[in-house]
Amino acid sequence: MDAPVLADMLDFVIAKYNYWGIAALMMIGLYAMIAKNNLVKKIIGMNIFQTAIILFFISIATKWDATIPIIIHGHGAHAHSIHAADYMNPLPHVLMLTAIVVSVATLGVALALAVGIFQRYETLEEDNILEQLKADESNLR
Amino acid sequence: MKRFAFIGVLLFGAVLLYSSFSFPPLGDPHAPANRHVSDDYIRDGMKETAVPNLVTAVLADYRGYDTMFEATVILAAGIACFFLLRRYRRKPAQHRLYRHIDTGVILIIEQGGKEPVDSKEFERIDYHWVPFDLVVNKAAGLMVPFLQLFALYVIFHGHHSPGGGFQGGVIFGATVILLAISRDLRSTTRLFPERTSAFLSSAGLFIYAGTGFACLLLGSNLLDYSALARLLAVDPVMARSHGILLVEIGVGMAVSAIMIWIYYNLASAGRYDEGL
Amino acid sequence: MTDQLPALIIISPLLAALLANIAGWIQKRLCFPAAVAGLLASFLCAAFLMRRVIAGGPVVYRLAGWNPPWGISYYIDNLSGAVLILVSLVALINMLANREVALTMFENRLGAFYSLYLLFVTGLMGIVITGDAFNLYVLLEIASLTGYALIGMGGGRARISSLHYVFMGTIGASLYLFGTGYLYMVTGSLNMADLAALLPQVEKVSLIEISFILCLVGLFIKMAFFPLHAWLPNAYSHAPGPSASLIAPLTTKVMIYVMIRVVLSVYRPEFVFKALPIRDLIIWIAVAAILAGSVMAFKQRRLKRMLSYIIVVEVAYMVGGFWLGNAAGMTGAMLHLLNDAMMTLCLFLAAGSIVSRVMSDEFSYLQGVFQKMPFTMVAFVAGALSVIGVPPTCGFFSKWYLISGGIAAGQYGFAAALIISSLINALLFFRVIEIGYFEPFDMHSHGAEPVFEEASAGMVVPLVATAGLILAMGFYANTLVAWFIEPIVPVVLAGGG
Questions:
Q1: What's the complex ipTM?
Q2: Cβ A106–C181 below 8 Å, yes or no?
Q3: Which residues of C touch A120 (CB under 8 A)?
């Protein structure tokens, strides 16, 4: 392979590798939610899925050679003009702070429901629970 | 089911992969996402709100309405955990265990038996009682005040460094949870009762929404902190900075109380007597 | 002060929710008045705001005083004003009707119940009123989280149904968020109006297409559109009565409203209907949904479960009608959105009233229910007639628009499915009415005289009022269309697909 082609490919990989990692995380989370039998594993899958989206937004916000969005020497005598390229994009960080809180809240409610299910059925395996549900229904008839 | 899930997930991944080819390159300062609105935040944020930490400025001012509901989400989760799990009517326990603190003798008292007065000599303990561990107990107790101080620093220094109400609130909540883990739930709920956490969770959000509402009553739009300038006797830009501090305190209060509340409910499955 | 009406609509139930939570720990009797006051204030503000919108066009409210792309703004046009009134009214009626049921059902956590109730309503109203794509997600999650909790409090299988709803709902909301992320990536903005202005200039159309599909699939999950509906019947039929009659009429309707909003004011109909080849596909899925949902409803032996499947069918009406893309179809979908919320409320309230007395909603227990609970059943019949689409009720008019829209767009399959589903609905409800009216109470199979009687006045009065509203919305269907819907239907597409 020619050296320039290789360099191009390397550039391409460097420019996108974050997003591929995020795609992989999303797939893992989604798969766990659909295919796993244990309810807590499903909840963990849900959290992985949400985290992947959080990483996605944060990746959008990066700028090479930029620092965190806190203005240095903003006050007083050292005040100087501000270049937008020197600071990361603050907006996605704000949005994801919200999304993190939302995912924590969802996790809390999901765990509360799982605790309630465990109290009643004494298992967190979904197929066991479904068996018990079927048994309950046939008892009623 | 598993095969179906696998194929579905692969398809989803393929769509993501396909779309990633059209993404702007990572870290490009000229990508549209980093230009349009965000440039103005970076350039004017400091001038308009007097807060050097732009994340705080955007979080609590430009998008303060979002943040109010962010705090509401976590309040909703706290109330939901309480609503779903709290059990009041339960069968009285068959035995109660009391430990004589000085000697370590454990009394098992049958239901209906006379119970020792809650004194300094006896303490009620759980069924699954972990023996009193001096190192864990004292070490946790020693760490708590410093952690709480740090939590307050994170809340109040959020204008100038990474931090703010949510982060500080979570650290503060974690200190109480640390106590609950290193000792037991019963003694922790005596220090920080359920009622307090329920009150503080609402009260913290009340500070936030109330600040916003006060701005409305003063004739500006909801959450427009510059209206507070008259009350606080500062110029409108500084008023925004103070308004941000006010709501961050509210958020810190609410978040710490709710974290503790959620922990109580989850860890004891709503019974509030023993840990899981 | 009238400039502040939009903010008051949202902030008053929020403050009332905080008060209710505190009141639950001090004085439980105060929870209910606080909650009613919050909802009533919200309803009145929404009504006054609607007057302004009808007189002076859409209202934009800048939160925190920042201009739209930088700050968050509200955007209230005729349709969102109407949905705001609808949400607050439905929530208010349901709260009044279920006062006693809630008191016995949640005695120790009344404050938490009312607090969650109000936060749920706040979330839905916030979704409707907001003009910011990300803010919509936050409020969507508030409405969902509180919804999970309200559903999970039912006995029996409610917890497991609710947890499944959590999984599905979270995937749906996350996909919406992900789609919004794509939009943010290509435009750098989150404000809906700003996005609409920026999107046509974006070169990478494939990213917009994928973002639209992600948002749409997310919303389809949230509104239980047919192949993604699996969570709904379980969640709604196992939910406790007061929650079911709150969540069932509102959640799916508001999600359909969000779909309409996202199509009309973010991606623009020009893009959605012309550039994307998915219109026919969605209409055919809607046809399948209508037929499959009707069949599944027919198989049920419990009233609330049957009603839940009817919701799945109604969702398909609205989605299909909207995607017809012509004026009649869109008008029908929007009018049906308003009507369906009211009739679902009526049916679920009636079911709740029956359950509160008969203690079951299985068909075999409903014998003689007409003699014992005449008012409840009259209201039930009104709701049923509206779902079937019998003329004086409001359901007829929206269905008429939908069918004529289907014919105008050349989608005869859709029009036929609507007619077939009306017939099946007639059968469904006739079966219930037959058991309740004609079959006398069978003493041998139950062993004793029926002990139940008409529900209390607190329940019956709001229920009958809801039935009255169904008729009134039928009589004033043209006014509703003229006030709320006509100004919104995009002019570009009027007159044909």
A1: 0.91
A2: no
A3: 159
